[in-house]
Design goal:
The complex is a heterodimer of chains A (about 110) and B (about 110).
Chain A: E1 4-7, E2 10-13, E3 19-25, E4 31-37, E5 43-51, E6 54-57, E7 64-66, E8 76-78, E9 87-94, E10 102-103, E11 107-111
Chain B: E1 3-7, E2 10-14, E3 19-26, E4 30-38, E5 43-49, E6 56-58, E7 61-66, E8 71-76, E9 85-93, E10 100-102, E11 106-111
The chains are: A mainly beta (about 110), B mainly beta (about 110).
Chain lengths: ~110, ~110
Amino acid sequence: DGGITQSPKYLFRKEGQNVTLSCEQNLNHDAMYWYRQDPGQGLRLIYYSQIVNDFQKGDIAEGYSVSREKKESFPLTVTSAQKNPTAFYLCASSMTTLTEAFFGQGTRLTVV
Amino acid sequence: EDKVVQSPLSLVVHEGDTVTLNCSYEVTNFRSLLWYKQEKKAPTFLFMLTSSGIEKKSGRLSSILDKKELFSILNITATQTGDSAIYLCAVGSYNQGGKLIFGQGTELSVKP
């Protein structure tokens, strides 16, 4: 089945550790996105990529990094520089940046 | 600064009621407005609106865009308990590539 797969669903990490969230899509979409969702704040864009080997910062990129070496994959690393990393992270993809985005099931990251 | 505001933030209705959710926006170089439904994890795509005054309909859900007054409404008729979810409105701009600006969401609860 075509879709977007995020893993893991739940992730616990100690403060000060880097952690990488996986996002894979088999929809042959060019564009991929990472959003962060906090209660009462809607979704905020962390990074997006319009094409392989290219990505741009979103509104809250500080403390995060991404790579886009393959069309299907857009992993997000939450670094120790991110001051408040506990959140629900959503990955999305779209055929182009002008079409609707489809979301994965999300990863809930808890930093203790 | 671009922004998207949804109202109300939360709403409780009974099965069979009709609800109207609002989304207003201030976005330069508007491209499209999208509605999503988020039940537990992944937001699922409902509608994408680009033209003013043309209603999009899917079953009991419908939506319309007013580009002069800068808002959209999402109507749900004959609500069911399965309509309980967070409804997200997002706006895309030609200025910002694939970036979607999300509102805070409206949490709808439908009681039996």
